[in-house]
Amino acid sequence: MPPKSRTYQPQKVRAALTAQTRALRAAVQGLTDAQLDLPTRLGDWRVRELLAHLAVQLDFLPAHLDDPLEGRPPLDLLGWVAAVGTVAPGLDAQTRERATVEFDGGAAAVAAAFGRAADALTGLLERPEAADPTRRLEVRLGSMLLADLLVTRLVETVVHADDLAAALGPEPFPHDRQAVAATTRLLADAFADRVPGGAVELRIPPYAVVQAVPGPKHTRGTPPNVVETDPLTWIRLATGRTDWAAALADADVSASGERSDLGEHLPVLR
Q1: How many Cα neighbours within 13 Å face the side chain of 54?
Q2: Percent with pLDDT over 70 in the chain
Q3: What count of other Cβ atoms lies within 10 Å of the Cβ of residue 211?
Q4: Which whole number is the average pLDDT over 54-59?
């Protein structure tokens, strides 16, 4: 089972989000016109649309920090992971509009537009409001603590930075370590919440270990069903970027025990 109330240290989250956002900004500044129209693994989105979507995610908080609350129900991080896929059509439309309005030029224009969104977020993270433990904002799915919303931005920046690296290849993206750690832990906890049980121990060293999947619970000694993988492979599995069977075939995942096939339970975040 996941920890009942895993917490993310707000100061570390803000520092990780700043570092991850700046790394993305630097990567975008180095793109060429031709690279903007490369395909991605996200349907018919090109790199251009991917960057527009990232900009939507980055400057949401600066744009809506002071919006009045309308009374939407509270939403925690596990609830966000479970439900965010339901707003995908709206995000797709918003992304395409942003791509047409701000991201339809050459590399210099796209880098400038992306830089404005990145700077808006990193500027917010330096403001006292970003450290307020009680401050809430509303998203389409509900009302979230600002501290939790910042964790969701970590997930977005890590997952989509990896999408960008996959499109550009072959060099890996220089992720912030704390950003990858938080994303790994949240998606592992979300998996254990979605498929509760104690039959399988999922290990993602050095960041997370959870027990999940219905069946006999392990109590001591070597667990009978163990799945182990690295953080980026887990993030790709949990978000549908990598297929379970392919990850096994490529030896990116080790799985032992009759209940260790997690393919039917993935992805976690859609």
Answers
A1: 35
A2: 97
A3: 18
A4: 97
Q: Reply yes or no on whether the pLDDT at 259 is more than 80.
A: yes
Q: Which amino acid is it at 45? A: W
* Pairwise CA distance, residues 92 & 6, whole Å: 31
pLDDT of residue 4: 57
> Residue 258 is which amino acid?
E
Residue by residue, what is the 3-state secondary structure of 159-174? Answer: HHHHHHHHHHCCCCCC
Query: Among all chains, which residue has been given the structure tokens 């349907």?
Result: 43
Count of beta carbons in the 10 Å neighbourhood of residue 196: 13
Instruction: Map residue 243 onto helix, strand or coil.
Output: coil
Query: What's 213's DSSP letter?
Result: S
In the chain, the amino acid numbered 253 is V
At residue 220, does pLDDT exceed 70?
no
- Residue 196 has which token pair? 């509760």
What is the average per-residue pLDDT within 137-160?
97
Q: CA distances (Å), 34 to each of 42, 48, 105, 168, in order? A: 18, 10, 12, 11
Residue 218, pLDDT score: 64
The Cα-based distances of 187 to 36, 53, 231 in angstroms read 29, 21, 10
Q: Which domains does the chain have, with CATH numbers?
A: 10-178 (1.20.120.450), 180-265 (3.30.1050.40)
pTM of whole model > 0.90? yes
Question: Which H or E run contains 142?
Answer: strand 142-145
Token representation of residue 193: 């919440």
3-state DSSP call for residue 253? strand
